[in-house]
Amino acid sequence: MTHTLRSLSTLLADGKASSVELCRDYLARIQALNPTLNAFITVDADRTLAEAAAADARRAAGQAGPLTGVPVAHKDIFCAEGWLTTCGSKILANFVSPYDAHVIEQFKAAGMPTLGKTNMDEFAMGSSNETSFFGPVKNPWDTARVPGGSSGGSAACVAAGLAPAATGTDTGGSIRQPAALCGITGLKPTYGVVSRYGMIAFASSLDQGGPMGRTAEDCAWLLNVMAGFDVRDSTSLERVKEDYTRDLTKPLAGLRIGLPREFFGEGLSGDTARAVEAAIDQYRKLGAETVEVGLPNSRLSVAAYYVLAPAEASSNLSRFDGVRYGYRTPEYRDLTDMYEKTRAEGFGAEVKRRIMIGTYVLSHGYYDAYYIQAQRLRRLIANDFAEAFRQCDVILGPTAPTTAFRLGEKADDPVQMYLSDIYTIAVNLAGLPGMSLPCGFDGQGLPIGLQLIGNYFAEAKMLNVAHQFQLATDWHARAPQGI
Amino acid sequence: MSLSIDDVQRIAKLARIRVNEAEAAGYQTQLNGIFGLIEAMQAVDTTGVEPMSHAQDLSQRLRADAVTEPDRRQAFQAVAPQTEDGLYLVPKVIE
C-alpha cells in the first residue's frame, strides 16, 4: 500500500477501483496494524464507507474532482462533525464535535473520505507522541522508537501505508519532525495560508495546518485542497487561490540554496550531517548553487518559543473548565473546586507544565521580562531570515538533530525533549513555510529528514525543489519492512 | 531565578489546576529546568526592537454588524456535562 495520490486518482478515474474498495483496503490494513502502531484514536468504518459511497456516486454523476474518492486521515486536532475529536486529551475524550473545521469542509468539498482520526501528543504539546492520553504511537521503522510529534499518528499511518496521506499541524515542528522521523514528506505552510477555524488551538500565533504524504507532489495536491481564505479565522490571509503543483516540473538550474551555518554545528548527529551533505551534493548535480547564510538569533528560538507558546496555550486552554464540553470531575464542593479538579484530572503532565509556565510569564510583574522580551527576539529571528533570503531562494538543513529516539528515552526530561525541535521552531516564530522530506537512513536503518525553508508564500517553489530531489532519489519510496 | 514550592502553588492556583504537595515538588524541579532554558533570552540586548506578535502584521478585519450564525444551541449543548432549559449548570456561586 504505497500508492501516491496521483496513482490512486488514476485508478479511480480509469474505473479500476472504487472509493469503497480503496477504503475497505485501507480499513483492513488499519485493523491489522493499528493494534501495533496505535496511530489512530478513532476509526469508524461505517462512516468512512458511507463517505466513500457518496464519492463514488459523485463520480458516477460526472462531478468528480481529481481527488474525489481518495481517502485521507485527519489529525485528531481537527473538529469533524459526528467524529470523536479528542486532541489526544482525557479532557476531550468524550467530545463528539458538532461542527467541521474549515480544513475538514475543504476535504469534504473535494469528496475525500475520512479514514479516521490520528493519534497525537496531548493538545499537540510534545515531540514524541508520548503525551497522548491514548498511549504512544510506535514508529513503523522500529516499534521500540517514537514516531516524533506532535503529528506522530499522521506520520506513522502514512509511513506504514495505513492511509495514503494525512493532515497535521505544526506549532514548533509538529509536521516536519515526525515526517523526518517516519520517512515521509510534510509541509508547514506560511502562517495564515490554512484556516485555523475548528483546529483546536494551542499557540494561535504559531499554529498552522498542513499536508503529510509520501511525496512532495502529494503534499502539493493536498495543499490545493487545504489552503484558502476563511473569514472565521481572524488571521486567515485573503489571497488569490494558488495551484501548488504549478512549478513542480521546473528545472533547478541556477537555484540558490542557503546553508545556515548554525544548523550544521554542535548537537547534530553524524549520520544526519552526512545524509544532509549528500543531499546538498545531489542538489549541486541538479544545477543548484549553495551559499552560506547566518541565522545568528536562531539559537534563541527554543527559549523564546517556550515563553510564547505556553503563554498562548495557558490562555487558549482556559476554555477547558468542565462547563461547556468535555470532562467534568465527578465530585466537587463549589465552582473553583470543580475547575481545579476538572483540570487537574483532565490534563496530562506536559500540558499542565506548559499552562503553568504560560500563567507565570503572563502574571503581574513578569510580563515585560518574559513575554515582551520573547516577542522582541521573535522579531530578531524573523529579521535573520529576511536577511538570508536576500542571498538565496530556499534555505536547507536538517529537520531534526537525530533520528527517532527510543520510547521513554526523553519522556522524563522536558528540556531534552524540547531540543528535538531546535531546527524547526525558528520557522514558526518567523511565520515562514517549512517542509521535511526523506534524504537517507542512519546506521540503524532509521529515516533522516531534510528541511527546506522558503520565504513567505514560496510553497510552490519549495515543492518544486523537493519534487526535483524526489525525481533524482528514491528515499521517499522506501517503506518499512515487516509492517 | 528559581521557583519555590509556594511559587508553584501560587501559579497552579492562578491556572486553576489542583496540585497536591507531592506533585508540587516534581513541578518545581521541572519548571525550574524549563526556566533554565528560557533564561538564555535575558542575555540579549533588545533595546529598540519592536515586539512581534504575528508573522504577518495584520489588523483585525471588520465585518457588518449582522447576524451570521444559525441557532445550533441544542447541538452545542448536547456535548456539555450538565444543562437545563438551554442553560449550562454549574455549582451555585451566589448565596
Descriptive notes:
- The complex is a heterodimer of chains A (483) and B (95).
- Chain A has helices spanning 5-13, 19-37, 45-60, 102-109, 152-159, 176-182, 216-226, 270-285, 301-316, 335-346, 349-361, 367-388, 414-418, 425-430, 459-472, and strands at 40-42, 72-75, 114-118, 165-170, 185-188, 208-213, 256-260, 289-293, 394-398, 434-441, 447-454.
- Chain A has an eight-stranded mixed sheet with strand order 4-6-5-10-11-9-7-8, sandwiched between helices.
- In chain A, helix 7 (216-226) packs antiparallel against helix 15 (459-472), helix 9 (301-316) crosses helix 11 and helix 9 crosses helix 12.
- The mean pLDDT of chain A is 97.
- By secondary structure, chain A is α/β, with parallel strands linked by helices.
- Chain B has 95 residues and is mainly alpha-helical.
- Chain B has a domain at 5-42.
- Chain B has helices at residues 5-14, 21-38, 73-77; strands at residues 83-84, 87-88.
- In chain B, a hairpin with a 2-residue loop joins strand 1 and strand 2 (87-88).
- The two termini of chain B are 42 Å apart.
- At the A-B interface, helix 9, helix 10, helix 11, helix 12 and helix 13 of A face helix 1 and helix 2 of B.
